[in-house]
Design goal:
The protein is of the alpha+beta class and 149 residues long. The chain contains four helices and five strands, in the order βααβββαβα. It has a single domain (3-133), classed as 3-Layer(aba) Sandwich (Aminopeptidase), CATH 3.40.630.30. It has helices at 13-23, 38-47, 96-110, 125-133; strands at residues 3-7, 52-57, 60-71, 78-87, 115-118. It has a five-stranded mixed sheet with strand order 1-2-3-4-5. The radius of gyration is 15 Å and the shape is globular.
């Protein structure tokens, strides 16, 4: 299995959307504060094209990562933010997510990023384990409250 990591192109957007739709459902993550929708995908692609990557196997998109750079006016530091990372279920645990992340981190370095951030729902054990393997450390505990109407 030969997997290629490359920058996302406009023709990848429908496939990326459908992969994310299968992974980031409200059933799986009922209190996720961000929503997975067409606007999210197109907005990140339009505003951060260099930081949107896909993994491809035999000409088919099997995973993606989308990031952004945050610059605060009062700070000399730049922050990289991993907004979305998803891999088709049948390719999970094959190193695809790791290769996507490593490629994005390389791009963050080119942009002068000093700290990379990601937020993960506390119940998402797979994501927590993944980012811990990538040497991320937990910095704070946030409590999200919700109210259904």
């Amino acid at each position: 299995m030969i997997i290629k990591i490359r920058e996302m192109c406009i023709d990848d957007l429908p496939e990326v959307f459908h992969i994310g739709e299968s992974l980031f459902s409200s059933e799986s993550f009922p209190i996720m504060y961000r929503t997975w929708d067409e606007y999210t995908v197109t907005s990140l692609f339009n505003n951060n094209k260099d930081l949107c990557l896909v993994a491809e196997c035999n000409g088919k998109v099997i995973g993606f990562i989308m990031g952004t750079v945050i610059e605060k006016p009062q700070s000399p530091w730049k922050y990289g933010y991993v907004v979305w990372l998803g891999v088709r279920k049948r390719y999970q645990k094959s190193g695809v997510a790791s290769r996507l992340y490593d490629s994005l981190e390389g791009k963050f370095k080119e942009f002068g990023v000093r700290i990379v951030l990601a937020d993960i729902e506390a119940t998402n054990g797979k994501a927590l384990k993944f980012f811990e393997k990538k040497k991320f450390e937990r910095t704070s505990i946030y409590i999200w409250v919700k109210k259904s109407l």
